[in-house]
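Sanity check

After download, print the first record. It should look like this:
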Amino acid sequence: MASTASLAQNVSNLTLNLEEEIHVNAPLQVTFESLLEQLGPEGTRPDGTSMQMKIEPWPGGRWYRDLGDKDGHFWAHVQAIKRPTLLEFCGPLFMSYPVISNVQYRLSEVPGGTLIKFHHSALGFVPDDVRSGMSNGWKHMHQSAKARAERKRP
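Expected structure tokens:
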């Protein structure tokens, strides 16, 4: 029988929580549209390679990598969308492991632009190498969305 300490350690190994705040010098609507573009067809890896992502921006819509010829990788479903203040996903994301993620983007107007509050929580098996690279991957995605919005601002 497992001790309480080992059970607590096992549970903490099965959870993931990442949070980030992104300040964008662009209006709320422009920021939301830029975020959708970056998470979708304009998304790139840090080396500039296209992620080949598709997003169907409605409740139940899919977020996935389209590799062509009916090949690809399902990331998530749109769990909630309320333009231009909320975008939420639920799914395994980029992980081919027994895991479920919830990703939330909450956008609000602030002086000088928009504040994006990002939260990624997951439950399941996330290997250490995947876990350690996640923060940088999300940061790249968010910096790219920010730059895209700030280039478009009126």
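If your output differs, re-run the checksum step. Summary of this record's structure: The helical segments are 4-13, 28-39, 128-152.
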